[in-house]
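Subject: design request, 100 residues
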């Protein structure tokens, strides 16, 4: 079982170097984020790919925030997002401010 908050925290230093000086990296880690069954290496790679894509989308710099938290996936969500199942899950997402 994997602690998502720990994984994101452990990646922070590497991501700061990867993003460069023009992109400000922030984190908002959910205080009660649960454990997930996931391959740590694959999840690290996904987060790094998202960070690189965000950096490339902000050629003049900007801010990237990585956020974790728990979400409840209900039956309606699961029906629209096969093969998802209704359950309590842990979520990680990245956000960049909308460009004007």
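Subject: RE: design request

Done. Sequence follows.
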């Amino acid at each position: 079982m994997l602690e998502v908050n720990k994984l994101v925290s452990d990646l922070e230093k590497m991501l700061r170097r990867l993003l460069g000086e023009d992109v400000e990296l922030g984190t908002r880690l959910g205080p009660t984020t649960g454990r997930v069954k996931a391959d740590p290496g694959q999840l690290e790679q996904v987060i790094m790919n998202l960070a690189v894509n965000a950096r490339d989308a902000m050629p003049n710099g900007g801010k990237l925030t990585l956020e974790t938290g728990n979400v409840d996936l209900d039956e309606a969500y699961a029906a629209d997002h096969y093969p998802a199942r209704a359950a309590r899950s842990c979520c990680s997402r990245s956000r960049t401010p909308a460009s004007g």
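The mean pLDDT is 85.
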